[in-house]
Design goal:
With 352 residues, the protein is mainly beta. It is 4% helix and 41% strand.
Length: 352
């Protein structure tokens, strides 16, 4: 038995080729240990000739097994419950939290705990090499490190082992070192490192979500004065009925005719007919007619029916009439989009 040295060792005679070895686990074995086994067998027959293969010579085998040990008393359960499953951009999210012992002891009084809460984009979370484990304090403090003890035996020098391989096969490499990935916290919408629950272990957080149309993961890490630890998680999504994205040329010059493209997506589960209004201002005119130089305004209205979660691109023909700056705005929606506050996004401007 090994961890930071040799914990225990003994010799045992095996009755047959399949033997069960029982190891009592003591309190000092937390968070785990390694068990190494060296099995030896004596010679079974004499060599057939001095020049031939000695198939009956003594042999040995060695194996390792990793045995993690957990203490249920040291684990905390953290319940995370968002008020809704789906929110709209810039809505206020309410999340209820509760900390409790994972395996409560009868008659035990409630122990205070402290929470650290992070809410991050699920797309960023999926890029983390360790995933959920990177946020779990119990696994961080009670994790079994890699084996740090080497096993040496004279049998390895006295008794050779036949290495069997296909003819002409080359030995494989070690696989290379593990790659360390940088964690980007740019897409974190909420972070509170010191949140104190009440005497019942309950707490509530509120925060506005950004405009990202994505899923968000709530991670609540808990720790108590007696070194109890735990992690709770939940997810919610930010969505809106209609999504608009620009698809514009990088640059245009005076006199160019071009198509101003915008992709529209129905992000609901029902077919919808959208009323679309396109407006462009500046030295621009419709691309279907010859425009005159000067500041003008283009207004185009259309309707478009979109299937559920279907995306389609609309193009508006334009022509530049002079040098200057062109501003464009597109609105699209139906009854599901009404009642929402209009926010003017950062405009895409094209210089001519």
């Amino acid at each position: 038995m090994e961890r930071l040295g040799v914990i225990d060792h003994w010799t045992k005679t095996l009755a047959d080729s399949s033997e069960i070895v029982e190891i009592p686990v003591g309190p000092d074995y937390l968070p785990g240990f390694y068990v190494s086994v060296m099995v030896t067998a004596p010679r079974v027959e004499k060599p057939m000739s001095p020049q031939g293969e000695d198939l009956g010579k003594p042999t040995y085998r060695m194996g390792y097994v990793k045995i993690p040990v957990k203490d249920p008393y040291k684990e905390l359960a953290v319940d995370v419950r968002p008020e809704k499953e789906v929110y709209k951009p810039r809505e206020t999210v309410r999340v209820a939290l509760q900390v409790r012992p994972l395996h409560p002891v009868p008659g035990e009084t409630a122990e205070p705990a402290e929470l650290a809460v992070a809410v991050l984009d699920e797309a960023v979370f999926d890029l983390l090499l360790e995933g959920r484990k990177a946020f779990d304090p119990y696994q961080g403090f009670y994790s079994l490190e890699d084996l740090d003890l080497g096993n040496y035996n004279l049998l390895m020098q006295l008794v050779g082992r036949e290495k069997l391989a296909l003819k002409g096969a080359s030995a494989g490499g070690g696989g290379g070192p593990d790659l360390s990935m940088r964690s980007l916290f740019k897409f974190v919408t909420y972070w509170n490192p010191t949140l104190a629950p009440d005497t019942d272990g309950k707490a509530t957080i509120e925060f506005p979500v950004p405009d990202n149309l994505t899923g968000w993961k709530v991670l609540a890490m808990a720790v108590s004065p007696s070194d109890r630890m735990g992690l709770g998680e939940a997810t919610f999504k930010v969505n809106q009925a209609t999504e608009i994205r620009p698809a514009l040329p990088n640059q245009v010059v005076e006199g160019d005719r071009f198509s101003a493209g915008f992709t529209l997506m129905n992000r609901t589960g029902q077919p919808r007919t959208l009323a679309i209004h396109f407006k462009a201002g500046g030295p621009v005119g419709l691309g279907t007619v010859q425009g005159e130089a000067g500041e003008t305004e283009v207004n185009i209205a259309r309707q478009l029916t979109l299937a559920p979660f279907h995306r389609e691109t609309l193009f508006f023909p334009l022509q530049t009439t002079a040098s200057g700056t062109i501003t464009m705005a597109v609105t699209a929606g139906d009854e599901q989009d009404r009642g929402r506050p209009y926010r003017n996004p950062a405009g895409r401007q094209t210089a001519t």
